[in-house]
Design goal:
Layout: E1 5-6, E2 11-17, E3 20-26, E4 31-32, E5 96-98, E6 107-114, E7 120-127, E8 150-156, H1 158-167, E9 173-179, E10 184-190, E11 197-202, E12 209-213, E13 222-223, H2 225-236, H3 268-273
Parallel strand pairs: 5-8, 6-11
Antiparallel strand pairs: 1-4, 2-3, 6-8, 7-9, 9-10, 11-12, 12-13
Length: 276
């Protein structure tokens, strides 16, 4: 404090000197000591704190990583383009049709080439089980089968098959051709059902009719000229050697003529009986 006098009290000190106890008396002087006051630190004013609103920290969620599956390579199929089926073209569509076109049972279809060099004005068919040629003919003088022409021939074998069933034999067919010049030939063992195409021919030396055709799966063509010449020799009595009278797959089938005399040739009397 300012002007504060410090009074020291008399202190009695006992001094121990040797073995004598001495009593010493101190008189304290009163001295005024100027004391500089220590400044009182200023008390800071009360600071009003403005309450800061609590900050809500929203945790941003870490986006979950969706694992992309590893694509397993698959073989891409080769796409075959859809093709419009090509319609089947009948190579015989523009050819002349002889007979009645049909796909019914027992209808024989064969492509015929007239390689005789003559116009055919009548064509008749019968089996060996029939006594005569049918009255109907497949071509006529009004619409001849011209030399060099190709036609598709449809033959209805129902009647022949019925007769064959009655006799227990497989029908063997012959075809009679009459030409514009009046000549005629008979082709024996006509191969209905055994080939798709045949050439009608006439031998220039003997005048006999014969066929050239190729059976399915055969390596070579079949030429019936030799067989037809043998039949002609038998008919004319040129020799007495028996004539081939059966197809290879029909042993025992007789190759009869229309008059039933087994000569295999249509005689004028035969044709008269046939009402040509």
């Amino acid at each position: 404090m300012t002007g504060l006098a410090v009074v020291f009290a008399a202190v009695t000190a006992v001094a121990l000197t040797g073995c004598t106890l001495e009593t010493v008396t101190y008189t304290a002087s009163q001295t005024s000591v100027a004391v500089t006051p220590t400044p009182t630190p200023a008390v800071p004013k009360e600071v009003k704190l403005t309450q800061i609103p609590a900050v809500v920290v929203t945790e941003t969620p870490t986006p979950s990583v969706t694992e992309t599956p590893t694509a397993i390579p698959t073989e891409t199929p080769t796409l075959t383009p859809s093709l419009t089926p090509t319609p089947t073209v009948d190579p015989d569509a523009d050819l002349r049709v002889i007979g009645t076109k049909s796909e019914a049972a027992n209808i024989s279809r064969i492509r015929l080439i007239n390689a005789t060099g003559k116009d055919i004005v009548r064509m008749d068919v019968r089996s060996d089980d029939m006594e005569n040629y049918p009255e109907n003919t497949y071509v006529s003088s009004a619409a001849p089968f011209a030399g060099g022409e190709t036609a598709v021939f449809y033959y209805d074998a129902n009647d022949a098959e019925k007769l064959g069933a009655q006799t227990g034999s497989k029908p063997v067919y012959r075809v009679r051709l009459i030409f514009a010049d009046g000549d005629e030939v008979v082709i024996h063992m006509f191969p209905f059902g055994k080939t798709d195409e045949a050439r009608l021919c006439v031998d220039s030396d003997t005048g006999v009719g014969y066929l050239i055709y190729k059976a399915p799966g055969a390596a070579e063509e079949t030429n019936t000229a030799e067989t037809e010449i043998e039949i002609l020799k038998r008919q004319t009595g040129a020799y007495d050697t028996p004539v081939p009278t059966a197809e290879p797959d029909n042993p025992g089938t007789r190759d009869r003529g229309d008059d039933g005399d087994d000569n295999g040739r249509d005689t004028p009397s035969d044709r008269d009986n046939d009402d040509n």
